[in-house]
Write a structure and sequence with these properties.
This protein has a six-stranded mixed beta sheet with strand order 2-1-6-5-4-3, with helices on one face. The chain is α+β, with helices and mostly antiparallel strands. It has three helices and six strands; from the N terminus they run ααββαββββ.
Length: 118
Amino acid sequence: MASAGFVNAQNEVKDQVVTAIGTGNATELGKHLVANVDLTVLNTSEYYSRAQAEQVLRKFFAETEPLGLSIEHEGTSKVGDRYYIGRLRTSKGEHRVTFFLKKGDVFQVKTLRIETAR
């Protein structure tokens, strides 16, 4: 059973990630990425260093102004990572966002996908 501190730390990181994506703050989002993150932005998918990922996200946010992210589904993967799926409202329409939080010394985003909503 997860302790209350464990769940609170996880929820705090999730909330910070949701806020950073929802407001288009690539710098703040970068603080929560693993060293080499699996990042998909629209049709481009690659493993990026944290700094490279921040640049890709900064460019996306500059071209597609975020207007808020709402989480619609969450759960736990087979390997124990938490995942969150939501809708990102932007100046250019809606996008589906999926991210996985990996537990290490702290919770960090190991995978982030921003895809055109279907």
